[in-house]
Amino acid sequence: MQAAADDTVPVPADAGVVVAMEDFEDFVRAHLPALLRTAFLLTGGDGPAAEDAVQETLTRLYPRWARVQQADHPLAYVRRSLINTYLNSVRSTSARELVALDSADRGAGGDMTQAVGDRDQIRRLIRQLPERQRVALVLRYFEDLTDREVARAMGCRPGTARSLISRGLSAVRATLSPAQLGDRDD
Amino acid sequence: MTEDLEARLRRELSSWAEEAPPPTAVSVRTLDAAYAAPVERSRPAWLLSAIAACVLLVVIGGTVGGIALVRHLTEPTRPAAPTQPASPAPPTGSVPSVHPTSPSPTANPTASASSAQPAPAPAGATGPVPAGFTVHDLTFVSDDQGWALGTAPCSSKPCTSLVRTSDGGRHWVGIRPPVVGLVGVDDCSTACVSNVRFATPLVGYLFGPQAFYLTTDGGATWQREAGGAAALEIADNNVLRVPSGDGQGCFPGCPVSVQVSTIGGTAWRTVLALSSAQVGFDTGVQLSRTGGHAYLQVYGHVSGGASQAHSALYVSADRGLTWTDRGEPCPQVSPGEVDASALSSASDQSVTVLCTQRSGSASFVAVSTDGGRTFRPGKLLPNLEIQVGSASSSTVFAIGSVGGRESLVRSVDRGLTWNVVAQSGPATGTAAPRGGFLGFESATTGRWVSLSDPRTVWTTSDGGATWVRYTFPA
Question: Which residues in B lie closer than 8 A to residue A124 (C-beta atoms)?
Fold first, then answer.
C-alpha cells in the first residue's frame, strides 16, 4: 500500500477545547437572558435568587458541556437543570422564603388601584404557590410547554405535571374575584 | 373563565419576566465562575506548521488497553516459551546505551470490570492538593474515580505526591503516598516510582524500576513488595507486570518476562520469558491490555547499530497466560526500514502501532483487526512523532508539535487524515519525553496531560472531539 508523503498535517482553524468553550460562551450569550427570565419567575420575582440559580446551573454544567451539546435539545437540558437547581435550593431555604412571603403579603395589603392591585395580587398568588405548582405554571404559561414537555422538564410523569398545573390554576382562581378573573390590564 | 385565567397568566408572567435583572452582570460572573475553578479558560493560539519532539498517540473506539514504556530487565525467569520461532538474532556492533524510556500515558483498562462493583470510599486522611502539583501519570477505574501521580515543590525531598478525584477530575484531594522518589525528578539510585495504576477504588499499584508498592485501601496505606516493575496493566480480573531489572544494563539486551497475579495479590507467576538472545538490542517494552487480550511489544534499538532495529510484538488472547510472537508489526511500506515505536489496543480487539522511519522523521500508524497478524498502514506524516495509545480500528490520537505548540491531533479514519483538537503550551522539543499522559477509560471518556503543561488535565467525554481542562493550582 502506498503511503503518500505530505508536508502538512491538515488542521482546521478551530477545534477541540476552543470549540467547547466558544460553544459555551455562545450559549450563554444567546440563552442566558431567557433563562434568567424563567428563573426570575420560578423564584417568584426574586432577582438575586434567579441570578444565583442561573449562574450555579451553568457553572455546574460547563465541565460537561460537550455532553450537554449532545442532548437532543440543549436548551431544554439546561432548563431542566435550572429547575432542579432552583427546587434544591428551595428545600434548603424554605423557612426564609416563608418570612419573605409574609413581608410581601403585608406590603401588598394596603390601598391599591384596581389595575396595579390586580397585577400585584396575581404575582403574590403565584409567589405563594407551592414551588412545584409555580414551576409548572411558569413552564406552561410562560415557556408555553406542553404537558409532556413540562413533565420532562420537571422530571415527573405527564399526569403529575397536569395535576400540578391544575392545582396551581385552582389556587389562583380561588382567590381572585370573578371580576378580577374577567378583567384585562390597561 | 379558565381560558381567561390562562390568558391572564400568560400576560402577567410575560410582563413580570421583563422585570428580571439585566443579564450582563450574571453573564460575566457565570463565565468567570465556569472558567476559574475547576475548569480554566483556555485560549490557545491555533497555529499550524511543522513539528518537533514528543508525540503521544492514543487510538480509541472501545475501551482502552494500558501502555507503559519500560526499562530493561535483568532476571530471567522460568521460561514459558512463545509458540512461534524466536525473534531475530541479536545484532552485532557496539553496546547500545541503556536509557530509561519515559512512562507513556496509560488508560486503565479495568473500567468495565470495576464499574460493576460498588465504589466504597477509600479510607484514610486526605488533604489539599499540594501547591504546584504536576502530573506524571494518571489512572482511572471509572469515568469519575481516578488518581494522579506527580510531584510538587516541597521542603524535604522526595516530593512525590498523589492526588485523587471522585468526580471525574473536577475536584481533587491529596492522599499520602509512600516516601519514594519519582523517576525523572529524584535521584533514583535507590527506589523510585514512575507510574500508578488502580484496579478498583481500593486496590492500586505504584511502581518503578526499583520499587513496587501495593495498596488495598484506596491509597491510605501502601505496602512495599519485592522488586520493581517496568510495566503493569490490569484487565479481566488479573494483573500483568513486566518486572524490571537492577538498572545496570545488559548486553546484548536484557531478558524480558511477563508475570501474572490476582488483583491485590502478592504472588506472581511468570507466563512469558524472553532471553537476551531473543530480545536483542531492545530499548524497552510496552504492555497493553484490553479485556482478555494482551500485547507486549519489545522495541529494537533505533538509534544506531549496524543491524536492523525491528520490534517484536507478542500477543495473548487468554489474559496473558500464553503468548504468540508476531514479529515486527509495521508494514515496510516506506523507503527504508520502518520500526514500531508505540503500541495500543482497544476493546474492539484492534491493535494499533506507531511505525517510524529509521532514517528520516516520518511516521504512520498501522492498525490490525486480526489479532496482530496483519497491519494496515495510515498516512505517512513527516515531522510528527506519534506514540500509539489504544485503539478502535478507526479513531486515533497523536500528540506532537504543530505551529510550535504541543498539540493533540485526532484521526477518525485510521490515521489517514488528522485534525487538531486541542493545543497546550510551547512544544518541549525533547526527544525522550518524560511524563505526559493520554488515555481513555472508555470509548468516550479520556484524559490528556501535555508535556508542556503538566499541571493541566484535559478531559474529553465525547470520544476526543472536544476537551475541557482542569489546572492544578500553582
Answer: none
